[in-house]
Amino acid sequence: MLITYTDNTIADNTMTIDVLYFADVTDQKNCSEERVKIQQAASLTDLYKQLSQNHVFSHPQSQLRVAVNDDFANWHELIYDGDNVAFISPVACS
Questions:
Q1: How many domains does the chain have?
Q2: Checking CA distances to 13, which of 1, 6, 37, 80 falls within 20 to 30 Å?
Q3: What is the DSSP string of the chain?
Q4: pTM to 2 decimals?
């Protein structure tokens, strides 16, 4: 199920990111993916912080792996319009 989330407080300089959730993160959100808007020049950490304001995640960022466009990434990396970002819980990584 795809959920589209838009933060109307963000100005016109936004980008759209598809976010995928795996393992127990999917169970917590009751969905496996959503489309979000975030300001340009945002990092993966910025995206996670924005999502955390609207969702309750049982794992802190430090316990999750993150991938962008099917490749593992570092949290400080920037994301770009149209990117696919996946949050992977420790259970899925083992």
A1: 1
A2: 1
A3: -EEEE--TTS-S-EEEEEEEE-THHHHHHT-SEEEEEEETT-BHHHHHHHHHHHS--SS-GGG-EEEETTEEE-TTSB--TT-EEEEE-HHHH-
A4: 0.78
